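Supplementary notes (optional reading)

For those who missed the lab, this is the record we used. Protein: Acyl-CoA reductase-like NAD-dependent aldehyde dehydrogenase. Length: 281 residues.
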Amino acid sequence: MSRLSVRKTYKLFIGGAFPRSESGRSYVVTSPKGDFLANASRASRKDARDAVTAARKAFPGWSGATPYNRGQILYRIAEMLEGRRGQFAEELPLGKKAGLEQVDAAIDRLVWYAGWSDKIASVRGSANPVAGPYFNLSTPEPSGVVAVIAPSDPLLGLVSAVAPVIVTGNTAVVVASESSPLAAITLAEVLATSDLPGGVVNILTGHQAELAPWLAAHMDVNGLDLTGVADPDLALRCEQEAAENLKRVIRPSSPDWSADPGIGRMTAFMETKTVWHPAGV
């Protein structure tokens, strides 16, 4: 006998839970050929504020965790993603073969960043020579809450933008790709079952033009990644709003996500703390 399929409901991911948008709105997601795929939640400004609140609440515990522990959790995310690679490949608008290749690349990228978790401080920190009986030490620390406007690359680009933010101890509010948000919410299901504390990553689906300026203007957001913003006017507005509390900003770009990412995205949202300490005689 034939049976009705149980269609997936794509919700938001805020504070480790999967709420619907408080506005009750949704929007249609279609394939590159225009075929209907799903209805995704359309997040509101209230949802964005809730996500920032959740990210701020999670920040002390996440930034206070050992770098080794953060690396273990990122590696666990990669393990969970490996177990669902077939599902992710089907949700990417690339075809099965190309989809599997992108999923594998996203897994490798997570493992790569996991390996940096307990090394970035050694690379970016330093013991500074000073003229006096002091030790002068500089160490990198996370900035706080970072808003990420995710690139249109629905999985590898998303992972490449979010992983460097959280591996260094920041928490994130992510606006998923507007045209291809399905993999982002499925990734949220992976995050929810991979030991990542609730609120460290919060994922919103909806319209960039509605959410990005409010996140840029939010006074409890410390950094802003505009990589996925394609509209120059929107990007300019976001940069102007971000200047109000001196947010660190990554400007819009179209990087080759398959290339070696380097450490630039990890250090973009880190502050340097310098400590003076008397030297023993």
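If you only remember one thing from this example: The first helix runs from residue 45 to 64.
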